[in-house]
């Protein structure tokens, strides 16, 4: 009896050890993936170890500068979800009269969003890596999140299927009723669409919820912009409209999408991307528009993230960039001063 009990305890201990090994392996894989993503998308501003003035772009960025990610006393005050939401958020217009921003809402234009560039799983991997920079571990249960999304999709599918059946049944009843009246009156009678309007509205809403649940689950594992090509835009505008749009684009450039965090004008601004002083001469408007909407569709490994620009915002930024036509810099002269 005692030997059997010891064997059971040994088996349980073995399973627990195996579980710990698997969990540790998953955590290590997550950290590894997070490190790779951090190195590609974050290190130029935040530095290899998350310290201020460590990344090559840090000192060139407008204020406020990136936080010290290695500072546990500060970073430890944030929940995992708060760090995730900072990385995966919609950009806000921070100019006076711009978007409404809550007191606890993060809205620094020069910190880009990766909501439209990376999968949810990849963003959680970055959060896990960032946690390691200040000596903490990710507590959020990522696999449970995936399970939750899967169950939500299944529930949304069932709801849609049910509402579709109810709609089809109501539509058939209305059609049968119209046929019956037609036979009685010996003339055509229109189907009373209002009799199944309620079921139709319910089905439409259920379809929206199902589509949203499907997108959410897809985006957990798949990058949102993958395989999405941007259609050629119509950039034809009257000169006075172009000037107004350019002003809007100028504001968006600095105050919403923080382009100056990575690009410079007159040697002011970030050094990650190319200087844009002469963008109006060298860049094609259609190309810029498509690039702004989905950079990864044109160059998969680019560091520039998709920032979720609306069609209108992308058009305005294109118009602004078209106005940037600084004179070409004169080459340095080798002639000695007299």
From TrEMBL:
It comes from the Bacteria. Keywords: Heme, Iron, Metal-binding, Signal. SUPFAM superfamilies: Cytochrome c. Residues 155-187 are annotated as: Disordered. Residues 29-134, 244-325 form the Cytochrome c domain. This is Cytochrome c domain-containing protein. PANTHER family: ALCOHOL DEHYDROGENASE CYTOCHROME C SUBUNIT, BLL4482 PROTEIN-RELATED. Pfam families: Cytochrom_C. GO terms for molecular function: electron transfer activity; heme binding; metal ion binding. Residues 161-187 have a biased composition (Basic and acidic residues). Residues 1-25 form the signal peptide. It comes from Nitrospira japonica.
